[in-house]
Amino acid sequence: MKRESTKKEMAAIRYMIHHRLKTYTEVGTLDAHPDEDTVSAFLEGQLDEAGSSQMVSHLITCGSCRHTTAQLTRLDSQINTENDSPLKDEGLGRVRLLLEGLASRVMPSSVEDVVFAYQNPSELMTEVNESTSDEPAQTQSSPDTSGDVNETKPD
Amino acid sequence: MTDYRARLIDHSCASQYLHNLTVGTAELDAIYVRCAEAYPEFDLSREEFKEAVIGAVYKYLVGFGMEGEIPTAQEIRRFISELQGIDLYLTLACSRGDEQAWWHFDRQYRSFIERLAHQLVGRGLDANEVIDSVYVELYGTKTVDGVRQSKFRTYTGRGTLRGWLRTVISHAAVDLYRGRHDEIPLEDWSNSGDGMPARQGWRTEAHGSETSMLEKVARERYRSVTIAALDQSLATLDAHETLLLLYYHVEGLKLREIARIVEAPSSSIRRWFQRRSKRQRTSPTRVHESTVMRWLDNVYRKVSDRFRSELKDKHGLNPAEIDICLDIATEDFGQGVGLNLEKAESKSFSKGEAGSCQVEGAS
C-alpha cells in the first residue's frame, strides 16, 4: 500500500517537474557563449572538471546554448558515421578549383572587421618559444599563422 | 562562464607557468614528428604547431576552468597527450591554405559535411548553401590586418575534428536560417526537439464554475505553497542535476541521447553522477539508458524529499494536506497549459524509453 502511494507520489513529482520546467523563465546570461571548440569538447567529455562545471552552469542559464548541445546530440544519433569512408581519389583538381574559388572571395581588411583578440600574452609566448626551442624564437612565422587569429570571436 | 579572453595570468605566477609549460611541452616534439610522418607533404613548422598547442593549453588549462590556478607540468603533459594531434596538424595546414592539406581534409570529411548539411536543412534552405557557407568559413574570406581568418584556426584539438565540424556546420545552418528569417525566432532547425522553453506562467484561474468560494480559497492556498515548495526544491539541486532535468524535460532528449553525452569515460558529468551513486562505481565502461534513468530517479527522489519537508516545515502542512497539494498540482498542470504540453509529453515520454518516465495519474 505504502509502495503504491510512493509510486504515485513520484509520478506526481515527475509530472510537476516536467511542467514546471517547461514554464521556467530563463534568467539569461551575461557570460560569453562557448565557441564551437569548447562545445564539441564538452559533448565529447573532454573538458576537465572545472571547465565542465562552468559549461554546465552556463547551459542552465543559457537556453540557446543548451538547445544547441541538445540538437547536436540528436544529430549524432541521426547520422550514421559508418558510411563516412574517405572519398575516392579525385586528384588535386577539385581541391585546386575549390581553393581558387574561395581565394577569389577573400575580402580585404576593413576597420569594422577588426576584432580584439582575447588576452594571449605574446610576451609569454615568445619566452616559451625561447625556453622550449633550440631555434631562435619566431614572433610571427607567416601572415596566416599569427597566434591571435585563432581566438577572435566576431560576436 | 568566465570569459577566458579577459583573464590575465597573475604576473607572480607567470614564471611558474612558464616553467611548467616548458617541462610539459617537452614531449610535444614526439607528437609533431608523428604528425609530420603522417602528412610529410605539409609545410608546417614545429614552431607553428607548438604555438597552436600552447594556445590550447592556455585556453583550457589557464583561461577557464582552473579558477586562477596554474596548471602543473603533469597536467599540461596529460592535456597535450590527449590532444587530437593529427587532426590539429591537418587543420593548421589547411588554415594556411595548403593544397595538399585541403585535399586530405576534403577527401576525409566532405561526405560527412554533405550528409550533415542535408540532415540540417529543410526549411527553405538548400544543403548546398550550407556546404558552401561551411567551406567559406573554414577557408576564411575575411581578413584582419591582412590575415585571413580561417575557422580552422579556432580548432584546438581538444575534441575530435569530426565533433568540431559538426558544431561548425550546425552553426552555419543556424546563421543561414537566421539570415533568411530575421524576424522569426529560430526554434527548431532540425526536425525534432521542443525548441526553447515556453515562457508561460501557471494557470491562475480556478476551474469548475461549481466550485465554492471556500474551496477556491483553499485550493489557491495549496496551489501557491506547492509552487513555492517545488521551486525551492528545484533550486537546491546541483547544476548537474538541473541540467539533466532540463535536457530530459525541456529539450526532450531521450535517455539514450543523454547517455551519449556522458558516454566518454573522461566525461566530467558522468564522473559527477557516478561519485554520488555507489552502484555506478562497479560499472565504469558504459552508460546505458537505465543508468541515466537511475540518475533521474535519484534527482526526483531528492526533489520529492525536499518538497515534502518544505511543505511540512516551512508551510506547516500535514501529510494529508501535502497529498492534496500533489493532487491539485497535477490537475492544474494538466489543464493549465493545454495541448502544447500534451505534445511535448508524447515526444519526451512515449517513445519506448527504458524505465519510462510516463507520468501516471496525470489528468
Mean pLDDT of chain A: 71
Q: How many extended strands of chain A?
A: 0
Strand order of the largest sheet of chain B: 1-2
Using DSSP, what is the number of strands of chain B? 2
Helix segment tally of chain A: 6
* Fraction of helical residues of chain A: 40-55%
Reported for the largest beta sheet of chain B, the result is: 2 strands, antiparallel
- Taking pLDDT < 50 over at least 5 consecutive residues as the criterion, the unreliable ranges of chain B are 1-8, 183-208, 336-363
Largest sheet of chain A: none
* Rg over CA atoms of chain A: 24 Å
**How far apart are the first and last residues' alpha carbons of chain A, in Å?**
58 Å
Strand content of chain B: under 5%
Task: Explain this structure.
The complex is a heterodimer of chains A (155) and B (363). Helix content of chain A is 52%, strand content 0%. Chain A is mainly alpha-helical and 155 residues long. In chain A, α3 crosses α4 (63-78). With 363 residues, chain B is mainly alpha-helical. Chain B folds into 3 domains: 4-83, no CATH class; 99-180, Orthogonal Bundle (Rna Polymerase Sigma Factor, Chain: A); 213-349, no CATH class. Chain B is 62% helix and 1% strand. Chain B has 15 helices and 2 strands. Chain B has helices at 11-24, 28-38, 46-63, 73-82, 85-95, 99-120, 127-139, 161-180, 213-235, 239-250, 255-261, 268-275, 289-314, 319-336, 338-349; strands at 143-144, 147-148. Chain B has a two-stranded antiparallel ribbon. In chain B, a hairpin with a 2-residue loop joins β1 (143-144) and β2 (147-148). At the A-B interface, α1, α2, α3, α4 and α5 of A face α1, α3, α6, α7 and β1 of B.
